[in-house]
Each structure stands twice: as structure tokens, then as C-alpha cells.
Amino acid sequence: MAAPARRRRSAPTRRPATRSRTRTVRRRTRGPATGRLAVGGSFLVIAVAVARAHPVATGVLTALALTAAVVVLLVRTGRLPLPARPTAARADLTHGIAAYQHMTGTQFEHAIADLARRDPAVRSATVSGGANDRALDVLLRLTDGRRIAVQCKRYAPSNRVGAPVIYAVYGTYRAYHRCDQALIVTTSTFTPAAQRANAELDRPLRLVDGRALGRWAGGGRPPWGA
User: Fold this and answer.
1) What's the predicted TM-score (pTM) here?
2) How many other CB atoms sit within 10 Å of the CB of residue 73?
3) Per-residue pLDDT for 113 more than 90?
4) Which ranges of the chain does DSSP label H, i.e. alpha helix?
5) Which of 161, 136, 134 has its CA nearest to residue 147?
């Protein structure tokens, strides 16, 4: 009889080396953490030494750092608004005046009326310019009851407003238009004779040249509020 066949022993299964891998990961994570602790401890020791050697300077720097942190926190939470940047109209007055200079006379009168309506103190702004306007282009009625006569002169920079315009407005704004105040708005400037004539009046007019008009259009105070 043949001998019975021997059974082959199966190779023992190897268990995954989870423990060794876990130990390796722990060692790797402990390394950077230990290094950070060591660096932090060194900085702490240095900070304490500096504070002992220079207590006044350390106190000042600490106060500045706390103040900066509080300011940053207030800005991020919206409790401390940052100052607004200047608008384009304020930054470039020349561009605003150039836009007015490219208008027609009638368009300029309506633009001044629209500019006046921005002021909450203005109840109405009526354009009344024309051939027989008697030196009145825009009539303003304020909430306090005042009436203001506005004469608009859209001139080129080389064409300045002269003294005859001063006398024409002064002679009609009270007697004919029954206004309390009058102003002349121009994209140009006023001649020295016009400025002298206005200064000699018992109630001088408000003269708004191109630069003053640019500031007004850029958000400045209106001429009757200055």
C-alpha cells in the first residue's frame, strides 16, 4: 500500500504592523511639536530677560501692540469706519470744469440748478434764463424763505467776467426780482475791475469762479452756506 500523502503546512499569516506604524507616526509628530515648544520657550525666556532689563520700553511696546490689536478688531467688526477716500470730482477739479465748459449756455444753467438742488436747504431751483432774463438765470427758493438770484456765465478760461455784469446783477436782483441775495457763477474768473466793483457795493454779490465751482460740484458747501 502506498503511504498516505502528507499535508502541507500553510505559512503563518503575518499581522499588519500597525503598532510599529503608529509608533513611527507618533515619533514624527512629537518631533516638530517638541521643536516648536523649544523655540517658544526660548522666545519666552528672551522676552522675560528683555522686560527685566528694559521695563519702560517693554511697557510702551506692549501698550502699542494692544492698541493696534484693538484698532484692527474695531475696523474688522465695522465699529471703527475708515476715512472715506476723496471722490474723483474733488481730486480732479479741472475735469469737472471742462465738462461745464463743453455745455451750451442753457445746459450750464440747468446744470447749476441741478447742483443747487443737492442742498437740502433749497426748496426749488427754477431756470428762467433767456433774452429778457434781466440778469437772472436761476431762481433759488430756500427753506428758510430766502430768494437767491443766480447769474450763470459759461465762459472760456480766457474770457473773464467784467464789471458790467456785476452792475447788471446788482441793479435787478432786489428791485426787480425781489431776491435777498445774488451770486454769479462762471467757469472762468473775474477781472480785477469786477472784483473791485463788487467790493465797493453796500451788499456785495457772491462771486463763484471756476475753482470755487469745482469745489462746490465736488461736494463742497454751496455759496449761500459759506
Assistant:
1) 0.58
2) 11
3) yes
4) 18-53, 55-77, 88-91, 93-101, 105-117, 163-172, 192-199, 210-217
5) 136
